[in-house]
């Protein structure tokens, strides 16, 4: 299945953006590898929609560390790493994976969406939907924003994204697929 044909929705939320963005990427990576079965993984991916497991990036990383073996048993070999790396480097890394990588960027929502009154930290999922760039966009990268009313960001607002990510100390959670079982 081509990565630009995946129909995985992002859950909207005002309090667990990091968890919703990570759950979206986990579903997406699983679907790309044929290891995502709606309903089966969703039972525990819903945990990321709780403040306890999805309220911020360290909680998401802790949840992932505790659940990665279960993901593997369900057929998904997905690795993750929490980093603090500049935005262009993260975007290049995601694009280089041609759909098999994603990133949750912690951002200042008020910079990314002026006038929205989104409190920091806010999070955004970055995925590669196509290996063919469109309209000068970096290798088909698309942002998926869990904040209600925001949704899909294409093309990515490069300058605003860099500023919003920098304000949050370039924190990111990188997810990558390394096969299936």
SSE diagram, text form:
Blueprint: H1 17-32, H2 42-45, H3 51-54, H4 57-73, E1 76-84, H5 87-96, E2 101-107, H6 109-112, E3 122-128, E4 141-145, E5 151-153, H7 158-167, E6 171-180
Antiparallel strand pairs: 1-6, 2-3, 2-6, 3-4, 4-5
Q: How would you explain this protein's 3D organization?
A:
With 181 residues, the chain is α+β, with helices and mostly antiparallel strands. The chain has one domain: Cathepsin B, Chain A (Alpha-Beta Complex). It is 36% helix and 23% strand. It has seven helices and six strands. A six-stranded antiparallel beta sheet has the order 1-6-2-3-4-5, with helices on both faces. Strand 4 and strand 5 form a beta hairpin. The radius of gyration is 15 Å and the shape is globular. Mean pLDDT is 87; it is low at 1-5.
Q: Could you name the CATH homologous superfamily? A: Cysteine proteinases
The coarse overall form would be globular
Number of strands: 6
Total domain units: 1
Stretches with pLDDT under 50, minimum 5 residues:
1-5
Q: Give the CATH level 1 class.
A: Alpha Beta
Tell me roughly what share of residues is in helical segments.
25-40%
Encode the helix/strand succession as letters. Answer: HHHHEHEHEEEHE
Question: Strands of the biggest beta sheet: in what spatial order?
Answer: 1-6-2-3-4-5
Radius of gyration over all CA atoms, rounded? 15 Å
Name the features.
alpha+beta; Cathepsin B, Chain A; six-stranded antiparallel β-sheet; 36% helix
Question: What is the gist of this entry?
Answer:
The protein has 181 residues and is an alpha+beta fold. 36% of the residues lie in helices and 23% in strands.
